């Protein structure tokens, strides 16, 4: 089991970054043990915490292999300011089993500082093991001061920066009227947010603001994923508010702190509220949040009853539970807002870099040839790394 302590990434942005662990590439000298990639947080010298474990690879070939880090999709990590990531691999299963046929990934002497554990035994005690949330489990022997360049790479997509998004209408002014139903559940189908990037994004649901025409029913905010027209899945339910005032109100979405959800590429979020508790109880005194006629397309359920059957309800992981009546084609601007912090990737998406290898090249045997990749570029301005593979098991990483 090997951890590379030299080729690391540190978050120097001053804000939390979302890291997507995307690819695992390695050169196999031979087909032998399974190979398992992983990522650790560096807590100190020779002190690590395992953050992500990739899919163990057994169906690889001699030579160059490039596979997804995980077959279940990119692993997403939050990296706080000042924290450092390092990568590693285990020529065994994650629990240390399956080894014993011998090493797979070759190395060169010198170069990166390596933390390494293992031994001659193919059992867990010999090879070491990795468990997410724990330090790597040592094998029979531990070496902390070797310098070796192992021929593997793990690629990360760093989503730095946060975009603030506010969905809804002005929550500081009154509307023209209140709904007549005593209990209402509303989803705003117009003011939505779609992840237009090519990567998953972390969304922090931060604030719930609304204008109260009167102090009546409790008010519960929520966020849904839009699966299709009038088809939703509840992703988050905020704290029910009963101690509010007539006029503008602004609260944290949840008293337990911002609610974090993952939004995959192409997925859409919408927001809503329920003038009742999340289970539909507690309503019946009448609507709270005013609205104006026209504007946003609204999905609405409720009725004159203050019971659960009248108002509808919301449960995380399920569609909103309808009340007595459902209306899908009304257009109304309700005076509430829910604010989101989008971590990673802009709506336009991150574009892949373009590799320009130059050439064609020719020369005389025994005379050096310069291969130049300096024409490569990244449209997003991201830093580039270079890797030249000539098929001789000795890849090179300079620009030229």
Number of domains: 3
Distance between the termini: 32 Å
SSE string, helices as H and strands as E: EEEEEEEEHEEEEEEEEEEEHEE
Strand content: over 45%
CATH topology of the largest domain, anyone?
Jelly Rolls
CATH C-level class of the largest domain is Mainly Beta
Q: What spatial order of strands do you see in the largest sheet? A: 4-3-7-1-8-9
Q: Which CATH architecture of the largest domain? A: Sandwich
Based on CA atoms alone, the radius of gyration comes out at 27 Å
Tell me, rounded to a whole number, the average pLDDT: 87
Describe the fold and architecture.
This protein folds into three domains: 2-159, Jelly Rolls (Sandwich); 162-343, Sandwich (Jelly Rolls), CATH 2.60.120; 351-400, no CATH class. It has two helices and 21 strands. It has helices at residues 124-127, 308-311, and strands spanning 2-10, 17-28, 36-44, 47-53, 63-68, 75-79, 84-90, 107-118, 141-150, 152-159, 162-168, 183-194, 201-212, 220-228, 231-237, 247-252, 259-263, 268-274, 291-303, 325-334, 336-343. The strands form four sheets. It has a six-stranded antiparallel sheet with strand order 4-3-7-1-8-9. Strands 15-14-18-12-19-20 form a six-stranded antiparallel sheet. The chain starts with a strand and ends in a 57-residue tail after the last strand.
Summarize this structure briefly.
By secondary structure, the chain is mainly β. The chain has helices spanning 124-127, 308-311, and strands at 2-10, 17-28, 36-44, 47-53, 63-68, 75-79, 84-90, 107-118, 141-150, 152-159, 162-168, 183-194, 201-212, 220-228, 231-237, 247-252, 259-263, 268-274, 291-303, 325-334, 336-343. The protein has 2 helices and 21 strands.
């Amino acid at each position: 089991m090997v951890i590379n302590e030299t080729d690391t990434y540190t978050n120097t942005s001053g804000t939390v970054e979302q890291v997507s662990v995307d690819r695992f590439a390695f050169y196999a000298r031979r087909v032998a043990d399974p190979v398992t990639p992983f990522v650790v947080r560096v807590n100190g010298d020779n002190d690590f915490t395992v953050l992500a474990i990739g899919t163990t690879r057994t169906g690889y070939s001699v030579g160059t292999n490039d596979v997804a880090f995980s077959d279940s999709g990119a692993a997403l990590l939050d990296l706080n300011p000042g924290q450092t990531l390092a990568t590693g691999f285990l020529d065994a299963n994650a629990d240390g089993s399956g080894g014993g046929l011998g090493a797979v990934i070759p190395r060169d002497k010198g170069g990166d500082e390596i933390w390494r554990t293992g031994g001659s035994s193919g059992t867990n005690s010999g090879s070491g093991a990795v468990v997410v949330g724990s330090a790597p489990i040592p094998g029979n022997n531990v070496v902390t001061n070797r310098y070796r360049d192992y021929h593997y790479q793990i690629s990360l997509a760093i989503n730095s920066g946060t975009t603030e998004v506010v969905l809804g209408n002005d929550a500081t002014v009154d509307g023209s009227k209140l709904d007549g139903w005593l209990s209402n559940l509303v989803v705003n189908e117009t003011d939505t947010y779609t992840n237009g990037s090519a990567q998953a994004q972390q969304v922090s649901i931060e604030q719930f603001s609304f204008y109260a025409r009167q102090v009546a029913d409790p008010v519960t905010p929520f966020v849904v994923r839009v699966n299709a027209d009038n088809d939703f899945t509840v992703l988050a339910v905020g704290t029910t508010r009963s101690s509010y005032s007539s006029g503008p109100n602004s609260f944290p979405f949840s008293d337990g702190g911002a609610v974090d959800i993952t939004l995959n590429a192409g997925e859409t979020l919408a927001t809503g509220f329920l003038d009742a508790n999340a289970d539909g109880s507690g309503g019946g005194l009448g609507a709270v949040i005013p609205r104006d006629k026209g504007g946003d397309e609204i999905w609405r359920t409720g009725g004159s009853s203050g019971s659960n059957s009248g108002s509808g309800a919301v449960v995380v992981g399920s569609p909103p539970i309808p009340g007595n009546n459902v209306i899908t084609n009304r257009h109304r601007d309700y005076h509430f807002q829910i604010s989101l912090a989008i971590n990673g990737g802009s709506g336009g998406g991150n574009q892949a870099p373009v590799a320009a290898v130059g050439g064609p090249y020719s020369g005389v045997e025994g005379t050096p040839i310069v291969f130049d990749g300096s024409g490569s570029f990244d449209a997003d301005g991201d830093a580039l790394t270079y890797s030249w593979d000539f098929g001789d098991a000795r890849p090179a990483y300079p620009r030229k």
